[in-house]
Specification:
Layout (H helix, E strand, L loop, with lengths): L1 E4 L2 E8 L3 E6 L21 E6 L16 H14 L5 E6 L1 H12 L4 E7 L7 H8 L8 H10 L3 H15 L10 H4 L5 E7 L7 H10 L3 E6 L12 H12 L5
Parallel strand pairs: 3-4, 3-5, 5-6, 6-7, 7-8
Antiparallel strand pairs: 1-2, 2-4
Helix pairs in contact: 1-2, 3-5
């Protein structure tokens, strides 16, 4: 499905029946990535709403400009279009940053959310990686997935790498200070790997202290986005129990 909004064509898919569960993929991913965690089937009792963020997957981005804040405005427009006033959500990495923008701009709208490897700011070591980010730094498997996920070909992929390099010199888009995080009212599960090469666990602890109704889950031996592959089963079990209120 596609919605023309904010100068782009925003593509999304909906799967399952039940209460709305927004899935926001990471930078350079696509909406369908949720299937790699939930074993290709939506979790029981949920209507999964999975957009391709602007410039990703099948969504367009004619201006070439990208910010996580603008992505949040796009997603808000989609939710308004679907007449969804309140929802639960999962955001992975860059998708988690978009979710932070949603949770701080319209706090009452999100009932509960899971943030996976999503930082409140980009530390220096990440900016150093962003400055040199290129396709040659990926494995062949990652390059294959990248080509399969993005429907507008190599020019789109090149633009995504350019987008990531631009993050290194941007400071106002991902800048969630503790007082800002303190405005979040959603019950929040923060998931971080203890061996994330991008973001140290100390960042997750900062977020946990700042977000009022938050829980912190540090995944042992977990890297960036420690929810795929063999880790998926435990993540699904833990995240669904949390979203269904079993932790209260």
């Amino acid at each position: 499905m596609v919605l023309e909004v904010n100068g782009i064509e925003l593509h999304w898919e909906e799967t399952g029946v039940g209460e709305p569960l927004l899935w926001l993929h990471g930078a350079m991913g696509c909406g369908a990535d949720w299937r790699h965690i939930f074993f290709k089937e939506p979790p029981s009792g949920y209507r999964v709403i999975a957009p391709d963020l602007r410039g990703h997957g099948s969504s367009t981005n004619p201006s070439g400009e990208f910010s996580f804040r603008q992505c949040a405005l796009d997603v808000r427009a989609l939710l308004d279009h679907l007449h969804i006033t309140r929802f639960k959500a999962i955001g992975l990495s860059g998708g988690g940053i978009v979710l932070l923008h949603l949770a701080t701009s319209q706090p009452a709208r999100i009932e509960s959310m899971v943030l996976i490897s999503a930082p409140p700011y980009f530390p220096d070591q990440v900016r150093a990686i962003q400055r040199q980010w290129s396709e040659s730094m990926l494995t062949e498997a990652d390059r294959t997935h990248l080509r399969a996920s993005h429907k507008h070909g190599q020019p789109q992929i090149d633009k995504l790498f350019e987008m990531t390099r631009a993050f290194a010199e941007t400071f106002d888009d991902v800048n969630f200070t503790p007082p800002y995080l303190g405005t979040i009212t959603a019950e929040t599960l923060i998931v971080f790997g203890d061996r994330d090469p991008l973001y140290p666990v100390s960042i997750a602890c900062e977020m946990h202290r700042a977000i009022p109704r938050s829980h912190l889950w540090v995944v042992p031996h977990g890297g960036h986005g420690p929810v795929f592959g063999e880790a998926a089963l435990q993540f699904v079990d833990t995240a669904l129990k949390f979203l269904r209120g079993a932790w209260r």
